[in-house]
Amino acid sequence: NMQRNERWFKVSILYCVMLSQLWAFPFSPSLDLDVTPRTTIFHKDFWSCNNGFTGSSQNYSTLLLEEETGRLYVGGRGALYALNTSNISTSANLTIDWNASPEQKKQCLNKGRNNQTECHNHIRFLQRFNETHLYVCGTNAFRPLCVYIDAERFNFSSGFEEGRDRCPYDPAKGFTGLLIGHSDGEMFTASQYEFRSSPDIRRNFPFPTLRTEEAPTRWLLEADFVGSVLLKESINSSIGDDDKIYFFFTERSQEQVAYPSQTKVSRVARVCKNDWGGQRTLQRKWTTFLKARMVCSVPEYELHLNVLRDVFVLQGRDVQSSIFYGVFGLEWKNIKASAICQYAFSDVRRVFEGPYMEVQDSKWREYTGKVPEPRPGSCITDVHRSQGINSSRDLPDSVLTFARRHPLMAKQVHPVDLRPLMFKRSVNYVKIAVHKEPALDENLYTVLFLGTDEGWLHKAVEVDGETHIIEELQIFAKPQPIESMVTSAVQRSIYIGSHSGVIQVPMSACQRYTSCYDCVFARDPFCGWDGRVCVEISSRPQRSNLTQDISRGTRGCKENPGNGPVIHRRRAVMSGDDVLLQCELRSNLATPRWTLNGKELQGYGLSTGYRVGTDGLLIIGARTQQGGSYRCFAVENGVSVLVYLYTVKVHTDPYFPVEPTDSTEPTTISSPVVFSTASPTEQPLPSPPAPLPPGANFQTYRHMEAIYISLVAVLGGLCLVLTVVLLYVSFCTRRESRSRKFSHQNLHVLGSSDRKRSSHLELKTISSHCNGRQGRRSISVPTFGDFNDSFLQIIPGDDQMSPAKTPPPAPPLPNPPPLPNMDYANGLSATLPSVLRKMNGNSYVLLRQADPEGMSPLYHSFTEELNRILEQRKHTQLDMHPDESSI
Ligand SMILES: *[C@@H]1O[C@H](CO)[C@@H](O)[C@H](O)[C@H]1NC(C)=O
Ligand SMILES: *[C@@H]1O[C@H](CO)[C@@H](O)[C@H](O)[C@H]1NC(C)=O
Ligand SMILES: *[C@@H]1O[C@H](CO)[C@@H](O)[C@H](O)[C@H]1NC(C)=O
Ligand SMILES: *[C@@H]1O[C@H](CO)[C@@H](O)[C@H](O)[C@H]1NC(C)=O
Ligand SMILES: *[C@@H]1O[C@H](CO)[C@@H](O)[C@H](O)[C@H]1NC(C)=O
Ligand SMILES: *[C@@H]1O[C@H](CO)[C@@H](O)[C@H](O)[C@H]1NC(C)=O
Ligand SMILES: *[C@@H]1O[C@H](CO)[C@@H](O)[C@H](O)[C@H]1NC(C)=O
Ligand SMILES: *[C@@H]1O[C@H](CO)[C@@H](O)[C@H](O)[C@H]1NC(C)=O
Ligand SMILES: *[C@@H]1O[C@H](CO)[C@@H](O)[C@H](O)[C@H]1NC(C)=O
Fold this sequence. Notes:
Shape: elongated
Strand order of the largest sheet: 1-31-30-29-28
Number of strands: 47
CATH class of the largest domain: Mainly Beta
Helix content: 10-25%
Structural class: alpha+beta
Low-confidence stretches: 14-32, 660-708, 731-863, 873-887
Mean pLDDT: 75
Strand content: 25-35%
Number of helices: 12
Bound molecules: 2-acetamido-2-deoxy-beta-D-glucopyranose
Radius of gyration: 31 Å
């Protein structure tokens, strides 16, 4: 009950948010920024063409790619591997087993640590030390150790060194480190090293080691580090500048933030490489530490993505042209959303040269007083040297005292164009890698590789400040976060590490595009159509006969889109039967269009006898005049491409001779269909692809307050009333649904081997919660285990579609908006529809259900319905003794 009420509460909150958006509409046009990946490729469909590596360990969290030596070094749990970059599957047998000793594990257990995850040696640091050696640190079951490795022979070359200052104890703590300047090596790391210690940015060697300050001003507050980079700003510097190291992290905000609901802020901090600490003040502390806030917000939504998850630095020819990409998310675990923001280091530098913040009356405010000379936090430059200041130790106390109290800059670092490059709902990106690829038009395109927390890789291209996701690939069959990712321009591969292994994925697989339109619509900078096949353009020295259109994705294909390669199938059905004409569109951006005997099919809906979904057309109760030639077109970028041709014959004689189905026709339907509901009265046109219904916006309350401060009270009251109503309705309908008896259910199994006989199946059912479908009715779902090759299709009964009998359940909205496609609490995930679409059954089950109550207007498609149901299934035990009310 608690759960239910919680869910209802969430729904009502949603309505309030949506309501407020309706109010907001005339003033803030909410642009739909969410980007849909053009194609979805599942693990089983591409797995065979990739190389993978799985050693005896797990948690392949640290990767070091060395293009020159052709090696990919991998740090896992209790082991290190050296793999061949050209094919990581070919085992060169270079493995170092490095486990924590049994005594150490025991001690770790005694400290109350988790023996499954923490009491192991997780490799956290793995970098080149000099020409011959690598330097490696591992957590060693909560007692970190470091060691040199002979890279050539790939074995330990020294005894172990104490690692407690260099490596976090906790395998899951944010950590970043750099080893720079071979042989005269310097090591910089940042983490919360020990359990319960404060986070710290350190220079570990050479002597003197440096740290951040904790008093009187804490420079870092619960910082969670995601990355660091050395920028060699000394090269060609006109002022004799120093090299700088930048650190990227999220921390608890100290300063007043404008968004009270958020407690964290993203930061960039920097130190100078040749900082030696102060003489008296800031002894063995950084004298050059400065940090600034990084902003990544979606202006349309007034949404501030405040948690930095990963960064990728794209070094330009000099620092001025270097940029970095940040992956941002929200601090609330139950809402999935990601934004990619792009920043210029020149902007970062400008912020570090701007005003400071200061604590006044225990609040952070911009400091407007006098700033001592030389400027605190700046590196030692020629100006300093001319004043006799040759190192940070020569800095006057006044400067160091000021630096100590003023680590934070007043100005914020804003992204290029003041907006994200990309925003994505329902997805948590956790890793990013960026690659520049020259396309056929000789422009250099930015290709983003984005790893999700569920083991997917999104490949996107930036075109004129907009991002187009070319494809999404399911890298790991088992959902798991992508832990590490590196790209190799030489091998044209991406190496992806996760809990279960390392995968080598080619940057492009153009052969996946099977027609000119497919190849061109994809807008993949790697791929071009050569007249017969889609090929990697880099593989062709002679490119004049290649076709590609990155900027628009429409131009260049010569053949008539109506005459492309078409799959022709025949269907013979009994009059009165339902028949499914499958038309699966490869592209999630395409919409289906159907014609019958050359005439546009219009008015899909029960009354017309047609229902259209993203994957096919259902003819309901086929009539003789519905026979003929059906064409399915994929409409993408304004071009209609013919993909399927069906010849349908409707027989009235029950004993018509069995026609041999034509050879191209599988006797089974190879993949399931998801229909969107099309009520006869209001939806004459085919609905757009199901995965991402538009209009799912979200804004913070704060925003609403700011704009309609006067409306707050009204809205609040409304929300309260709504909540009460919803709770009441939920309570009532739940009771109702328990007592409801359902009439006989008709099941037609189509597409099974004997297509003419409809069989009655006994369904294994689960009892459903009323909250899953707003308590309007309960639906049963066969377990997919039982119907491994089947798919459940739920068609609401005729009478429920009649508008007169559709009392909207609760919220008195004229046109209730679709549920936002975000992952609230337990899913309702936008990725599920595409998963469903391809569940690859070879038949589908049609469940007819007469429901006197009508369908909830909350649902715009069966996809969402199924989502809901599947979502419930995750949390519902199978009811071993189903009664009628559970069907
Ligand atoms: C990697 O494998 C390729 C062939 O598969 C081989 O030519 C190359 O020498 C190997 N590289 C290393 C570093 O082992
Ligand atoms: C990589 O090596 C594995 C094992 O030797 C082999 O099965 C696979 O075909 C190779 N992949 C490529 C792309 O050569
Ligand atoms: C790897 O080592 C194992 C045992 O150490 C051996 O059996 C196997 O043949 C080796 N494989 C290769 C490719 O060298
Ligand atoms: C971890 O602890 C659990 C219970 O405390 C025990 O059953 C399991 O065998 C232990 N695993 C290892 C690897 O020690
Ligand atoms: C690299 O460092 C290791 C470890 O300190 C040392 O033994 C080795 O001689 C160094 N190699 C070179 C070429 O300097
Ligand atoms: C590393 O390997 C070489 C040759 O295989 C061997 O001579 C050397 O003793 C090994 N070193 C260690 C520390 O095991
Ligand atoms: C530094 O300046 C020289 C000469 O102007 C130029 O050749 C070189 O590329 C510059 N280096 C960098 C990193 O800008
Ligand atoms: C290591 O992998 C296991 C699953 O294999 C996972 O549960 C655990 O969280 C991972 N540990 C870290 C530190 O990533
Ligand atoms: C395009 O050019 C390549 C050689 O560069 C050739 O192999 C291919 O057949 C050509 N395609 C057409 C359609 O002419």
